[in-house]
Each structure stands twice: as C-alpha cells, then as structure tokens.
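Annual report, structural modelling task.

Input specification for the adenosine-5-diphosphoribose complex:
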Amino acid sequence: MFTGAGISAESGLGTFRDNGGLWERYKIEDVATPEAFERNPELVLNFYNLRRKQLLESKPNAAHISLNKLSEKYKLHIVTQNIDDLHERSGSKKVLHLHGKLRESKSSVDDSLIYLIEGVNLKMGDFCEKGSQLRPNVVWFGEAVPKMIDAISITKKADIFIVIGTSLNVYPAASLLNYTNNAKQIILIDPKAEQEKGIEVIKEKATIAVPKLVKELLL
Ligand code: APR
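The model returned the following structure:
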C-alpha cells in the first residue's frame, strides 16, 4: 500500500497540488525547506502548527478504516508520504512515514533526538535536551529521505501494490513504482488518475473505491 495526501482529503486535510491545495496558498521555499527554517523559523513552525491543529480536529475516513480489513487475508504494509497519523488512528499497525510525522518534533542539531509534540503547537524556545531549537520531524524539500531504503524493500515484496491518492509528483517517493516487479497487480485509486500501462486505474474517491476494492480482494 502506498498512500498520499488524497487518502486524507476526505478527512478534511488539504492535499498539495489539487486546486486550492497547500502549494497554491504557500510557497514551498517559504515553509518546507531547511533554508526557510533558517531564514524564518517562526513562519515555518506556524505553518506546521496550523496543519497540526487541523489534524487534531480530523479523524480517519472510510478509506483508512476499510483498508485495515486486508490484514485478515494479507500481510498489510503501508508506506505513506503523509505526515498525518490517520492511518495509525484507524488501527493500521505497520505504517512507514517516508516524509516524517506532523505530531513529532526533532532536534535541529541531532536527528536521533525525536519527541512527541503534546497538543498543537511547537514554538520558538522549545529546545531539545542539547539546547537547540526543535523543528518539525518532517522531511523538507532538499533533505534526504532515509526511510526510502525500507520502503523499497517493502515494495519489492508486494504481491499487490495499491496506490491511493498521490499525484506521484515527488521523488524519490514516486520512484517506488519502479520496484513493483514482483507485484501481480498494481492498482491506482485517484479521481484524476490517467490510464497507465500495467496499472489498474480506479478513477474514484478513496472513501468509495477503497471499501469496494477491499471487499473484492477479500472474496
Ligand atoms: N481520493 C483519492 N485521491 C484523491 C482524493 C480523494 N478523495 N482527493 C484528491 N485526490 C488525489 C488528487 O487527484 C492527487 O492526485 O490525491 C492526489 C494528491 O496529490 P498531491 O496533492 O500532490 O499529494 P501527494 O502526492 O501526497 O504529494 C506528495 O509532496 O508536498 C510534498 O511532502 C509532500 O508528501 C507530499 C508529497
């Protein structure tokens, strides 16, 4: 399973590249790069505080919930580009976050120091145990994606590779499709997806298409 912002859209969390998406309202270089954090940490912290507030007010939708039923018959691994915790809150156990987690902070001098953010806000003056300003534990543009190695090994083992709600615009995440050689089926659920060779495209919203697909796969 490989998911993107589209699976959380019907929980009220914005996507990035749909009309009205986040990257229409904010410039990536202002809020989602290490240089942005260097230049204006407050603006960056507030951008993620806003998204964390929205996340705490949202809940998993029928797509997050129904896909867990697949573990009745399959070994379900979820690789997500999302930094929300809706997969976990829907009961999913094996979730790998390629781009980090919105509800965690990280030391800006030591990547191994990761903390849970209690409540909504991460503020200036919130320091790690080494006395440095905490930053969101998310992967910014231009930063390495350390979990990619694990994501590739999960993808290589997939018999059925289901992609839900991603524009497949961002690399290296989108390159996971190059590692599906052992998959008997590749299924893409996205209302705006184009037909692609070797991929079963379901042009429908996740909350409609995922429960239907799960039912079929459990027959
Ligand atoms: N159900 C299924 N898919 C949907 C729905 C829905 N209800 N609503 C929108 N979509 C689809 C859109 O058609 C689009 O193809 O979800 C996709 C969202 O694409 P993006 O906004 O580009 O989000 P994503 O692919 O997850 O972005 C990848 O880019 O900005 C970075 O780090 C960020 O993880 C993010 C990465």
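The chain has a mean pLDDT of 97.
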